[in-house]
Amino acid sequence: MQEKDNAIAKEFELSATTLIKNLRSRNFESYYCRTKEDAAAKALSLIPEDASVTWGGSVSVVESGLIDKIKKSKLAWLDRDQAKSADERLESMRKAFFCDFYLGSVNAISEDGIFVNIDGFGNRVAAISFGPKNIILIVGMNKLCKTLAGARERAQNFAAPANAQRVFKTFEGGQPRTPCTTSGSCGDCKSADCICSYIVETRMCKTPGRIKIILVGESLGF
Ligand code: SF4
Question: How far apart are CA 46 and CA 66, in angstroms?
Answer without folding.
Answer: 12
